[in-house]
């Protein structure tokens, strides 16, 4: 593995560790419902501060179940990941294509040079 | 950082909408100008938006025992400057408000203000400041993305504390409450976002060196050192 790839893998591993450690160490155990969303916790805090507050508008569309909601979240991540990998794949392919074209040019150059060198060598 | 639909009183919802609108309008102008003058950057713009899409869909566990998500706005802000990120962030927030019932239309202004305006600007400011003092590129990128992420959640805490001051301890008491829910949870996630942004920037500096030089992220001198033979041909 090149040094570059090692650093990139290490970066990913640290991110994974940061996500897994809270779970592995049971940092959510002190809660009734561990690892709920912070957004939902904020809603609870609002109703604690102002028990009479009623949301005055409700979402136009609400995913009918948790499964549909996670499907839509996965869709969001998939769209993003798809565009990102397209970008990097395209550029990798372009770079490889350029390198191949360069190699071909070089091969032609040397072949042409050899061809032009030969007759002059015969003449002398 | 998504304030749920209907969870800001109308006056606050309108005020944040009014505050955000000029930034988004200005951002749309910057975006169309960028695309018109540099059509080749469209792909990288798409990739920056895609990065925000992925990261803001990832809900990760944190040390406080709750889950939250990164924002992914630092990358685009560093590459294309914050105004353009105001647009890309708004698109992401609209997608989530309309399809996922995450955030909302009435709270869109407030959410745009925290995630698509303050986050990118704060991250970009830190990045530029560090670069001015010759801090290595990747270190500056890390802290730029870290600050973009964390400042977003601090703004959300302020927004909620302004709307719902604690009856006994007032604004500051509520700020402490919302801050402990959002900001503390977010610290390890902001580290993750910083690391992921560095990873993507490393990949970009391999695959799209020319583009990064044009955008002023990489110095043009580097090209002279490593890429002259390619240019010469």
Record keyword descriptors for this entry.
heterodimer, A: 124 residues, mainly alpha, 3 helices, 74% helix, B: 233 residues, Arp2/3 complex 21 kDa subunit ARPC3, two-stranded antiparallel sheet, 10 helices, 2% strand
What does this structure look like?
The complex is a heterodimer of chains A (124) and B (233). With 124 residues, chain A is mostly helical. Chain A folds into two domains: 57 residues, no CATH class; 61 residues. Chain A is 74% helix and 0% strand. Chain B is an all-alpha fold and 233 residues long. Chain B has a single domain, classed as Arp2/3 complex 21 kDa subunit ARPC3 (Orthogonal Bundle). Chain B has ten helices and two strands, in the order ααββαααααααα. The C terminus of chain B is likely disordered.
List the helices and strands and how they pair.
The complex is a heterodimer of chains A (124) and B (233).
Chain A (H helix, E strand, L loop, with lengths): L2 H22 L13 H12 L16 H58 L1
Chain B lengths: L9 H28 L4 H16 L2 E2 L5 E2 L4 H8 L1 H18 L8 H25 L4 H27 L6 H38 L1 H6 L5 H7 L1 H5 L1
Antiparallel strand pairs in B: 1-2
Helix pairs in contact in B: 1-4, 1-5, 2-3, 2-4, 3-4, 3-5, 3-6, 4-5, 5-6, 6-7
Low-confidence stretches of chain B: 222-233
Order of helices and strands of chain B: HHEEHHHHHHHH
Mean pLDDT of chain A: 89
Global geometry of chain B: globular
Counting DSSP H or I runs of 4 or more residues, the number of helices of chain A is: 3
Total count of helical runs of at least 4 residues of chain B: 10
Please give the CATH architecture of chain B: Orthogonal Bundle
Mean pLDDT of chain B: 92
From the 3D structure, determine the CATH topology of chain B: Arp2/3 complex 21 kDa subunit ARPC3
Rg result of chain A: 30 Å
Q: State the helicity of chain B in percent bands.
A: over 70%
Helix content of chain A: over 70%
Strand order of the largest sheet of chain B: 1-2
* Percent of residues in beta strands of chain A: under 5%
How far apart are the first and last residues' alpha carbons of chain B, in Å?
50 Å
As for the number of domains of chain A, it is: 2
Which regions of chain A have little confidence, pLDDT < 50, spanning 5+ residues?
none
